[in-house]
Amino acid sequence: MVKFNNQYVNREISWLWFNERVLQESADKNVPLIERLRFLGIFSNNLDEFFKVRYATVKRIVEAGKTGKSVLGGEKAKDLLEEITEIVIRQQSKSLVILKQIEAELERENIFIIRETALNKNQKEFVKEYFLQNVSPQLMTIILNDLTRFPTLKDTAAYLAVKMIIKGANVKKEKRFALIEIPKGIDRFVVLPKEGDKNYIIILDDLIRYCLSNIFTMFEYESISAHMIKITRDAELDMDNDLSKSFIEKISLSVEHRKISDPVRFVYDKSIAKDTLAFLKEKMQIEDTDSVIPGGRYHNKRDYMGFPSLDRNDLLYDKIRPLPVKGLSIEGSILESITHKDYLQYTPYHTFTYILKFLREAALDPKVRTIKITVYRLANNSQVAASLINAVKNGKQVTVQIELQARFDEQANIEYAEQLQAEGVKLIFGVPGLKVHSKICLIEREEDEGLKRYGFISTGNFNESTAKIYTDYTLFTSHPPILKELNKVFDFFETTYKINKYKHLIVSPHYTKKVFHKLIEQEIANAIVGKEAYIKIKMNSFTSYEMVDKLYEASRAGVKIQLIVRGICCLVPGVKGMSENIEAISIVDKFLEHTRLFVFANAGNPKVYISSADWMTRNLDYRVEVGCPIYDEDIKQELMDTFEICWRDNLKARVFSEKQDNAYRRSRTPKHRSQFETYDYYVKKLKEK
Fold this sequence. Notes:
alpha/beta, polyphosphate kinase like, Endonuclease, Chain A, PPK_C_dom2, metal ion binding, magnesium
């Protein structure tokens, strides 16, 4: 096989380019103003998670004395750390410029974010009272000079590093250093009393700065200053091998250890005094392999995701009303409906209520005997969990496979596991060495002709909160062969040594790669003999070099390939002799694109699949994932239609290319914004007879 110099894009670098697309949304003047601030918050939150996980992993490779070239796409780990830091510094600088632009535009809308030095008399009184009543009781302040051991700073918490010059006769003035932790239980943006048409907001950090004299009354100082810092810690879970401990105990201890794990990034206000910065770096033992990033006055910009709306709906996206699925009534029996045909729910365009209705109906139906479901991420106060508990109380046998290692949701899932177990739900805690990422549910109902199965298979989590902003497919079906195989997946959770065979479902870790290879090879064979051959794929991330190579092979054979990849894409499209028949775009817009869809031409009789799996090594080889064929011709056409709507996008689509410059796709054809057009597609569908 021909080798090209730029055959793959490094996954970490590709991820940073994805996050730059999020940053582009915050700069796009076609995005409502407050939503732009919130995209800035998403950009910052994404970056925090990147350093906790991906940067931390590369740092571990360096500290182990390895190059990591085999797993990093040929790039040395140490060089990669330096490249990441350079890109992040550039992106952080860009984000500060964008923030200033947004703040100027907010002022034109009579929304003012003011500093502590700009408060008028009434605002000063309000701030003092607010501080005494709401902030002071929650404030954690540490004087650093006399401590023999530097305090452990919380992961991604924001701190004000305070420097005081103490009054005295000595020429060499005494310096006192302190840290103030910004409380998390208080809104970061404090809305001050409105004055006429003008709205005023002060950031909590500045409110605290204004009240420094109240905090440090016991010190006589000549001057005082406060600058923000934060650290990000390695978030990888180091599992205890003690066989006497339960799996829940091990996960709990690992999550607890994460709070004191090694720092991987140190961000500071670039206007901080040199002696303050030197003091902190020495005491915190910041190393060369840590990413040290100068930033702006405010960190934890992720808090901008919660920027107050101020009743300014004109500066927000219009809220859509989730639609019903055509032909599937919420009021009637869902089980009865799906006896006759399959139905597809596509959130957030469709209401998530169908999943809840399915579970509630199963919980109350006297003929339902068992409910089996996988849980990866649940909402706070989850109605899904409540429905499962309700089913147990009605005498159903309920089995829940709950993934305790769902990243950053470990603690929440531990709490749900304990709650469900206490109510009598049978819990399965995963498969040794594998995460369970599949999104499946199966119920068994006693009917006249015997036991009948119903179920649903999804691309996303059963989470009513994220369903409002994540695009995901859920197939409701009573198709006996599919559900018989779905039951095999649940059997695998309990008897992991038994590898089942599947004719319909595509199941990781044993079959997903093999099945997709076979489907691609069929397209190659069809292209060679002149039959219709194409592949259309929509997914979150594409990092498996093995699957990249397979698509390169298909491209060289003449198979036309269209990729829609929201996040990481290690494939380089459009390179003559390697990938000239591959086009790839990314769509970042109002909703987070989360669907996984795979379409193969199959010589004019398309094969269509939805799946929980991206084409990443972890999804293909180290997770339990479930992909499902679509047999209903109407749903098959619906999925291909919505793919084409996305492919036409020329407003929010960015083009992947050798340049990797996140260029917007532009054309002279009419403007197409896929997320808005997808909603219109379903509105129109409801009106059709």
